[in-house]
Amino acid sequence: MEVIPGVSGGTIALILGVYDTLIDGAGHLARGVVRLISDGLRGRGTSRAVEHFRSVRWVVVIPIGVGMLAAVVIGARFVAPLVEEHPVETKALFAGLIAASLIVPIRMVGGRWRVHEVAVVLAAAALTFFLTGLPPAGDANPPLWVVAIAAAFAVCALVLPGVSGSYLLLTVGMYAPTLAAVNDRNLAYVAVFALGAIVGLGLFVSGLQWLLSRHRRITLIVVTGLMLGSLRSMWPWQSEENALLPAGPEALTAVTLFAVGVLAVLVLLIVEAILVRRHVLSEDTVSDPTPHPVDPER
């Protein structure tokens, strides 16, 4: 979904119930790589790196990683043109998905919300509303060092619900060049972009993992606000400068597709609840930056 402006990969992870697992695994993977390099250069061995690698739930992280790569290739080829050709219909559907998925972080927060927590949600929503209303920059042919920096920032949105990495690329004029590089198999561009993304993800996810571990409630409250504010980018009628326009003649179709998106998420949440109740699916893990004790029979 990260190839679609306005749709956050973190939001999709929340909908699928793997958000904490994704953050936890990415954090340990990033720390493991850092330990492997730093301890290797100092001659301290690989034991600390191995502890972090063993803490990654590979059975979840590997399928997610493979799926993400496949989604980028498929999305660049098929989904992105669909969004361009049918913007009203696709945005309405995605808006329904995001609106219903607000249930997920709200449920994860739990308990009774206090007044200052509601204020935090509204502030985060207002910030996202403003950012998603910024007009896109003109398409550019950026140098590779700019590609790396843009990728480092854009990939942060991969794990931050409500913030779309592809939308960030769009606002700095690098969305079209990046899609073209994927479609044209521009290996140099793709390799530099991937390197920048890995560095950015490693730095950002560690901080987010720490927040989820130490300040979980307020972090999820901010996430809820970001998702709420991101609904602005999914309003089906917008100008090329991202200004909001009145509803057009496709209003009935848009409302129908919005309802389909809401229903799809609700069905998914019901199925998840049934699987958890029957112990077919376990509750999601809580992100923790310290290595987990490893069962030798795992």
Characteristics:
68% helix; 298 residues; globular
Order of helices and strands: HHHHHHHHHHHHH
DSSP E strands, number: 0
The CA-CA distance between the termini, in Å, is 32 Å
Number of helices, counting only DSSP H or I runs of 4 residues or more: 13
Described by the principal axes of the CA atoms, the overall outline is globular
Helix content: 55-70%
Strand content: under 5%
Gyration radius over CA: 20 Å
Biggest sheet layout: none
Which structural class do you get from the secondary structure elements? mainly alpha
Global mean pLDDT: 76
- Count the domains: 1
Any low-confidence stretches, pLDDT <50, length ≥5? none
Pfam families: VCA0040-like
InterPro entries: VCA0040-like
Protein name: Membrane protein
Keywords: Membrane, Transmembrane, Transmembrane helix
Structure, explained:
The protein is mostly helical and 298 residues long. It has one domain (9-277). It has 13 helices and no strands. It has helices spanning 9-16, 19-41, 47-55, 58-85, 87-101, 103-109, 115-131, 144-154, 165-171, 175-183, 187-214, 216-230, 251-277. The longest helix has 28 residues, at 58-85. The chain is globular and about 70 Å long. The two termini are 32 Å apart. The model has no long low-confidence stretch (mean pLDDT 76).
